[in-house]
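Our preliminary data section would be incomplete without showing what the modeling component actually yields. Below, a chain of 276 amino acids is followed by its predicted structure, encoded as tokens that our downstream tools consume directly.
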Amino acid sequence: MSFASEAAEKACFWHAEDIGHLELLKAVYVRHVFSRHAHEGYAIGVIEAGTEAFYYRGKLHVAPTGSIVAINPDTVHTGHAAEKSGWAYRMLYPSKDLVLDVSAQGKGGAAELPYFPDPVIRDDDLARRIQKLHRTLETSVSTLERETQFLLVIGQLISRHVRNRFQPKETGRDHRAVIRIKDYIHACSTENISLHQLADLAGLSPYYLTRLFTRIEGLPPHAYLTQVRIGRAKAFIRQGMSLSEVAVAAGFTDQSHFTRHFKRLVGVTPGKFSGT
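Predicted structure:
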């Protein structure tokens, strides 16, 4: 992939206030050079195209397309293109507290600040998950989906690639917590439910609840919520409601959002389902 010139450079930076004021960057760089700097928190991301090079802890590291970059807090590093075509990447900058909280939830108690020994990681599955998380935080308005994906992806990154890594703890808790969560989702499916609401209701940590719910139901809470909304939408369509009314009544933010999820789960658009 070639970005041709410095004119091809572009960058978009924003905050996810609902994820602990998480900072995010999506960028294409060709000639830009990051001088020596450090972040108070972590720098975690995926190279989507091209190759980035950076000095870190006394060595030059090269991050090719598809690799994960994981920079520890307060560690000086640089950044520049390793080839003339430049590089494109998606980055997340979670605070120490945010990552430490995920680590503690995974351990089921107090945890040390996670340390990534390798700044360039090859893990194709996790790289795709980080990309998906980044896109979700760019486009999704569902608090539950955003929080769930963040916890799962950062938890997997820690469990797979941190020194003194933890194995997510599972106990013999019964299914009553999951039943309470399902009942709540059904009762409040039109609301913008947060993962912390569900965790408080179940009396579990958000991380453990997500794992438990996914293990028992086969999909995470945000996906279950979408499934419930689509079920309600189908019932409303059968009752003869207009599709614009259905989208609102089922809890979707707009009709395009509704149509996209409906086709993904049902296989046809709402219009085709209704016969209009």
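The mean pLDDT is 90. The longest helix spans residues 143-161. Preliminary results of this kind motivate Aim 1 of the renewal.
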